[in-house]
Structures
1.
Amino acid sequence: MAKEWILNSAMNRFQLNFKRNVGPTSESIRRCSPKTLDEWRDYYFSNVKSKEHIEELGKKLYVKITEVIQSEVAELTEQDCIDYMI
């Protein structure tokens, strides 16, 4: 659960799930009307964005989490947390 929350939060923060990055997913799902996940993947990679493009987004996400967010977390102090709560 924590891993999914981190991935989702970072993806949203860095806008990697925006239409300009992943294409018009809702519209594409309606157009495809997939019955299985494999059917959706085949359609998506053929008609919306390439698998290589999505893999590159995954690599960017990894860098954002392991370099940007990790350094920001390392800078937090207990007093930062107390001040935030107050």
2.
Amino acid sequence: MTRIRVAGIAGGVALLALAVWGGEYGTADWITIRRQLAEERTRVAALRIELDSLAKLAHDLETNPAVQERVAREQFGMIRDGEVLYRVVPKE
């Protein structure tokens, strides 16, 4: 091989390495950013689903008497006239 050919191959390898790893946003950084973007989009989608379910729950708590009664019974121990409330307390 001639020196020119070796220099050309070395230059090509150097340019390829620069394209992959060089600079602030090389190909390796681009791949990492794309992966992070996909993960963040997945998280945003999960948060949107959670937000929708919380909005539905808030609406039901404001407008649905059955849901209001269930929450009052579960969280506050409220009972109707004639009912007996039993609380199970675990041993420590």
3.
Amino acid sequence: MLHIVNGDSVGDKLRKGNIRGDILVWREVYPAGPTFVKMEEPRARTARAAYLEKAMGIPADEYAAACESQEQTLRSFRQYDEVVLWFEHDLFDQLMLGYLLHWFSRQELGHTKLHLLCIGAYPGIERFHGLGQLTVEQLETLGGTWKRIGQRELETGRRIWEAYASPNVEDHAAILQEDTSALPFAQAAFEMHLSRLPSAENGLGIIEQTVIELVRDGTDAPLELFREAGDRLCLLGMGDLEFWYRLRRMAEQPAALIEICQPHALPGDRDNVVALTPRGRDVAAGVQDGRLKVKDEWYGGLHLNDDLTWRWDAGRKRLTTQQP
């Protein structure tokens, strides 16, 4: 049996518990950077590695080596009788799940059976963020509760991934009109993805809007901002590296919304603070548009630039026309 999980914490706990089989920790951050339908292609690997190194400081050679290592294990799946995918409800995991289902949909499975364990809550945990919260013993209780992955799940995962990797924003929006019930958490997660895009209300995505509100209301320490934004936006499953990148983007001139006292300091430094710029205060007050100047930004297959002619209306779940 092969278990594919979303993080080292979960993988380590499964190894300590009474879950039989091998563990493959899938290391990726699909919510950030360019994605492509076939991520294993050299051009996709090169483009993604360059972005992650520039934006998040992940060395390109280490990223490429890690991808090759995990893909080599994935390609050997036929040596297992069963493969179990362990994931949760947030965007981070749902994109990972979508990619893997898309990949498996193109394979001859042979005798190997695919299973899925995907949860959005756990008894006794009031605010469930993910499988990493669970103890070894709690994870053990989930053993064997997975369900067989059939053609509906594979097809739904394929469509979700192809929509996310599309360069056309209409494809991203259209997935909300499709039947994705085979993967019950997919639609809400994909709505969160679309909510990250420039909004019809004021040009800000949901991450930037949340940061503006938190700083306006008195939260000024970067680490505390990450914690509070993570609680508000738990359906994103956003990690620290992506959050620090979003903060730095908000502080870039021209049109900066925030200023970071020590932009090169560690996020946890107590003397480091974040404040709204005059423009940020105007945006928070609703008297100015907050659209960031964008030259090279990616959300899946979408390459955002300053000449966008659309915005996302989260309330109506549709695209609206917007002059650049």
4.
Amino acid sequence: MLDEAFVRAQFPAFSEPALHGQALFENAGGSYPCQQVVDRLSRFYTERKVQPYYGFSASRLGGEEMDEARARLAGYLGVATDELSFGPSTTQNTYVLAQAFSAMLSPGDVVIVTNQDHEANSGPWRRLIRAGIEIREWQVDPASGHLDLAQLSDLMDEKVRLVCFPHCSNVVGEINPVTDIVDLVHAAGAVCCVDGVSYAPHGLPNVARLGADIYLFSTYKTYGPHQGVMVVRRSLAERLPNQGHEFNGGSLTKKFTPAGPDHAQVAACAGIADYFDTLADEYGFGGLDAATRGEHLHDLFREREKVLLRPLLDYFSSRNDVRLLGPGDAELRAPTIAIASAEPGAVVAGKLAEDGIMAGDGDFYAGRVIRAMGEDPDRGLLRLSFVHYTSEQEIQQLLSALERHL
């Protein structure tokens, strides 16, 4: 079990006077950065803020730190270093990948998307219809928000080239069986793009074990700076056309990044790996390879979060005046809870803020699934989301505030 005090000591926000008494329950929108990331970002801006990869010291060190970030995160994800690229955001990365696919696919080819996704892994692919690509929608069950694998099987045929789906919805919260989905997709001769933005904060997955051809997530939700990470497995990356400068077409780490990288933020992403290494050392498995360390940390994060999540799910299941979107079992979902209640989400979130609860409200760029489940995205939901650094006291603070205001 994670040591709450040790974990929270790694995050400067928890000793910041301006945040005293404020409990963050909108981690799905962005987590606090760990101290290791803050230190690396500060060092880069003060000591390395020059064009990287030249021979002089500041430039050479800056480039080395950028390369280090890529290599170490790739290691934790269980993939090769040249299979990982950085971009300004996951949304931007997905648009670039959709543009690459549009040049490789032919009219009449099929792309499958879901209506459970955040718009980032739905909208860019849906626009391929302009290139003559057929778009099919894998739809959720309107009562539960669940994606049924049998329905995907019914959508598959010899025309399908790509299937795009979330590891975990940022509203429904259910953890989808990625490996099973990937196996079905691959058996049909297609490839898959997995949006991991709402799952990666709860433990980086071993992408090689999942079998995903593309895996996307955002480092500002995994304790780091505002960057998007895209893993594109080599066999697919080599087939996709270059989206970068002409002279970068031979580099897998550059061909999907049309703009130049944000040097400082890329370098600071190594701080995420520093944090993970700190935890691995603390819990006695620091000597293992990075992918295995990552799997152990994933399990520690998930066990911690399930303990914190159960009393919240029990609370909502005891009420008949609110609707919890997604499963009520902590084993089946990430700790991202969207609630429809008698009042609009913004009203409830405003009341909770009076008691120091920082909660989200709105549609969270997931209007398709909200509408599919019979709720009104314009009216807005209340969203409560946390990660492994959330304290038991903060959970009690939230429960007390909900009891007073919901």
